[in-house]
Amino acid sequence: MGSVRLDLDGQPVSGATVRFIDRDSGDLFETRTSASGSYVVSLPDLATSIGEPPRPPEDADTQLGAAFPNPFNPLAVIPFHLSRSAQVGLQVYDLLGRRVRHLVGQELAAGTYRIVWDGTNDRRQAVAAGVYIYRLVAGEFTATRKLTLLDGRARLHSPGSWSPKAVVRARFDVEVWGTGIETLRMAHVQPFAPEFKTHFTVSLGRREAPLPAGDSALLLGIPGGSFTMGSREYQDESPPHLVSLDGFFLQQLEVTQSQYRRCVDAGACFEPASGEACNWGRDDRDDHPANCISWYDASRYCRWAGMRLPTEAEWEKAARGTFGWSYPWGNTPPGGAGDCDRAIMMRAGLGLGCGHDGTGPAGSLPLSASPYGLLDMAGNVWEWVVDDYDRSYYADAPPENPVRLGSGTRKVLRGNGWFYVDPNADMRAANRYRMPPLRWYPYVGARCAASGPTLAITAVPDLDTESEARRHNDWRQRNRFVQRQEGEVPAASAVIPMDLEEMVSVPAGPFRMGTEDGAGDERPERTVFVSAFQIDRHEVTVAEYEACVQSGSCTEPHSGSEAYRLRFEGDFTNWGKPERGLHPVNAVTWFQANTYCKWANKRLPTEAEWEKAARGTEGQRYPWGDEDPDCEWIVMDDGGDGCGQESTWPVGSKLRGASPYGALDMSGNVWEWVADWWSRDYYLAGPTQDPLNTEPGESELKVLRGGSLADQNPHIHLASNRLAYGPKSRFDYTIGFRCARTPE
C-alpha cells in the first residue's frame, strides 16, 4: 500500500495509475489511486516454494489469513480475501489495544490481497519486539489474529518458513502516470525492501497542444483530487463544499485573437462582434485575448481546437488550487484601487484595463499566476465555462465532477475582466457571474480544457436568431437585436404607470441601522430613532429634473461622450435623450441634487432616513428581504449592465424590489445622494436620534446609497451599504437621487 501526492502542494492525486512491471517475467500489476491518493497493489507470490499459505478460491468467503512468516523480522505479509467489494480497514495494535500501524483504509474490490508490515508504527519508527494483533474490518466482517515480531538480532531461514531475502530478490520497474501529471518512472526497484518508499511524489504535467491550423497552445495539468469549492461570501457561492475532480489540462493563457482568427479562417468559427473595445479587426491586438464572443462562439472554437470549455468546478480549482486561496495569486486582495501587477483590471489613476481601455496582452503579468501556473485567471476577460447558471446549485451538487447542463437560460462566466469592477469582491476565484449564452461583450472571452470528463453538450443556439444577429457587426446592436428576439422589452421604451408626484410615508420610531457583517463604516450596528418623514416613491426622473432646468433653478446634468475614454459610455447618460424621460436623471453632482430638492420644496433624505425607508424595522438586508439580488428585483449588472440593457430603466420598473414602505428602486438603477457627509467612524460617535452628519471632515466626501445598474456585487446593494464620493463628481452616470420632506 502507498500513496501518490503532488510536489506542488503535497495534496493527494486521485485517479493516477500505479504500475509495477516484473523485470523477469514481464508481468504487469496495475491499480489506480483512490480519492485519498492511496493505492493497494497485489504483487506476485514470491515465496510459495518455502511455505506460503495457499490462496483461497475466488468464491471463498471474506477471511483474514495467517501472517507469514510468524514470528517475523523484518517483514511480514498479512493476507486477506474479500468475497465482495467493501470499505476495508486493516490495523495493527499492541496487546494494550493501542493502534500501532494503519495499513489499509479504503474501498477495495473483491479479491485476494497481501499487505506487508515492516515492523514500524505510523511515524515509521521501529517498534519493540513482542506480540501484536492485526485486525481486519471489511463491511460487516471483522476478524483479528496475532503475530510476533522478533528482536533485530533474529533472522529466519529455516525450511518451511518464509524468507525476507526471497522477497527482496525480485526487481520491478515502476510507473506512475495520470491526466494532469508528469509520468514518474523508476527502474530496478525492490518493492519489499525496507528502504523502498511506496509513497510517490509527482509533478504537474505540461503539454504543447497543436492546433489544426499550425499554431499551438500550452496546456498545464491539474491533477485529479479534491478541493473546497465556493465560499460564504454570496448566496450563490454557498455552501462551501468538497469536490473531487478527475485530472485535466487547461490552457495557460486565454484564447488569443490570433488563435481565434485561425478558426475563422478555417471556416469553423464565426467572426466575433466588433465595435469599440472589441479586438476583432485590430492588427495590434493579435496577442490579446479574443473578446466579443458568445458562449456558442467559445464552444465552437474549443471543439475546433480539439478541446472543450472547462466546467465551473474545473475552472475554480485551476484558479485557486487546493490551498483555498481567495485569489489566484493568494489571499492578498487587489485593494479598492486595483492591482495592475496581478490583474488587467480597472485601476485608479490608470483607468480601465490598467490603461489599455480594453484588454491587455494575454499572459503579460507573471504575478497573476495561479497555483498551477495559469495566467490571467482574474482580470483581462471574463471566461465562459460550460455550466448553466443556477443560484442554488451548490446546495445539492454532486461531489464528483459536478457540471450543470441543459436546464437554464444563462451560462456561467468566471474570473472577471478589464471593465468596471469592485476589486476585492469581484476578483475572487469563487465569484460567479451569469450571462445569456447568445451575447457578445468586450470584456468576455474564453480558455479551453482538455481531457477529464466527457461532456454530453447538446445546447445549440436558435440558428435563425444567431444568423440574423450576425448581420449587426457592432456588439451593442447585435445584443439589442437578440434581446428583442428573446422577448426582452427595451428599457428605454418601457412605460410604467404611476403618480410621479407620489411620496411614501415612514412613521416615527426606532430601527436597526448598520450591520456587524459589513464594511468598517457600517459598524457598529445600532438602534436609531427617526422622526416621521416622507420620501419619494421613485428616483427623480429626467422629465422632472428638466422642469427645474427650464425654470432656471437647476443646471443641466452631464451628457454625451466627451468625458469618457470609451465613447460608448456616453450612451449611459440620460440627459438629452427624449426616449428616457421616465428614467432616473443621472450624472448629477450632490449640489445639483440638493438644488433640485429645494426647488421642489423638499430636501435630500438623511442617511438614517434613507436606510429606514429601504429596509424597514425588521432588519432585513435588502428592501425586499434577505435573498441576494438579481434582475427580478432590481436593475443591476446581471447579464450586462442594467440587466443587459446597457442603460438605466424607467423608475419603478422592478415592482418586486419594493421596500417595506413601498419605495421603489432603493437598490439598483442609480446610486442616490443623501444629505450627510461621510465619516468612517460616524456610527461610533453619532447621535442615535435623527442623526445627520453635517461635518465635512478631512475627506470632504458625501454619502451615496443603494448601488446601481453597473454593480454585480450583492453586498453593494445591501440597504446598509455606504459609499463615500466627491460631491462635485458630475460624470458618473451611475449616480442619481430622490427627495424627502418632513410632514407639516
Automatic annotation (TrEMBL):
Pfam family, one: FGE-sulfatase
Highest taxon listed in the record's lineage: Bacteria
A GO molecular-function annotation: formylglycine-generating oxidase activity
Membrane-spanning parts: none
Domain Sulfatase-modifying factor enzyme-like, chain residue ranges per copy: 221-449, 500-741
Sequence ranges assigned to domain FlgD/Vpr Ig-like in this UniProt record: 83-137
NCBIfam families noted in UniProt: Por_Secre_tail (TIGR04183)
Alphabetical list of PANTHER family matching this protein: FORMYLGLYCINE-GENERATING ENZYME, SULFATASE MODIFYING FACTOR 1, 2
Name the record gives this protein: Uncharacterized conserved protein
Organism, scientific name: uncultured nuHF2 cluster bacterium HF0500_31B05
